[in-house]
C-alpha cells in the first residue's frame, strides 16, 4: 500500500489507539453531563473502523475515509455515530483527487457543514461544533490566506480546537443530552468536543510522521 490511502489507514489506526487510551476519560466526561457511553461507543467504533480500513486492498484516500465513516456510522450509535460517521462518509467525496492542501480544506469544510446540518448546533451550544468550527476556519485561513505549510496550518487548527474544547466548560449546553441539565451543564467539558480534539491531534501526529 502506498500514498494518500496508506496515510489515511495510518490515521484511522492512530485515532483508534488514542480513543482507546482516552476511553475512560471520555466516559467520565459523558457521565457528568450525559449517559456515560461516549468512551465505550467511540472506542468500539474506531477499533472496528481501523480493522475495516486495514482489510482494504491498496485503497485510495477517499475509499479509506468512506469505509472508516461507514463503520463509525454503523458501530458508534448515539448522537456521535451519525455526526462523526455520516459526516466522514459525506466529506470523503472531497478527497477524490487525493489529499492536497486544497482538498484537505474542502474536506474539512464539508465535514463541518455536514455536522452542523445533522446536529443543528451552532458555536456556543456546547458540542463538538465548538471545537470543530474554529479548527476548520483556522485551517482554511492558514492554507488559503496565510499560505502556511500544511503541517503548520494543522498545528494551528489543533490549537484552535483545544481552545474550543476549553470554551465548552463555562457555557450552558443547548444541544444534545447535556442540554437536559440546563444550567447544571455549566462547568463541564463536552465529551464530543474533546474526542474531536483527540482525533485532530492524531491527524497532526500522523501528518508530521510520528
Ligand atoms: P449520546 O449523547 O447520544 O449518548 P455520545 O455520548 O456518543 O451520544 O456523544 C455525545 C456528544 O455528541 C456530545 O458531547 C456532543 O459533542 C455531541 N452532540 C450531541 N448532540 C449534538 C448536536 N445536535 N450537534 C452536534 N454535536 C452534538
Ligand atoms: Mg452519551
Ligand atoms: Mg447515548
Task: Summarize the structure in words.
Keywords: Kinase, Transferase. Pfam families: Dak2. One of its GO terms (cellular component) is cytosol. Residues 6-205 form the DhaL domain. This protein is mainly alpha-helical and 210 residues long. The protein has a single domain, classed as Serine Threonine Protein Phosphatase 5, Tetratricopeptide repeat (Alpha Horseshoe), CATH 1.25.40. Helix content is 70%, strand content 0%. The protein has helices spanning 3-21, 23-33, 38-54, 61-76, 80-91, 101-119, 129-144, 150-167, 191-208. The model has no long low-confidence stretch (mean pLDDT 97). Bound molecules: adenosine-5'-diphosphate and magnesium ion (MG) (2 copies). Residues 30, 34-35, 37-38, 78, 177 line the site of one magnesium ion.
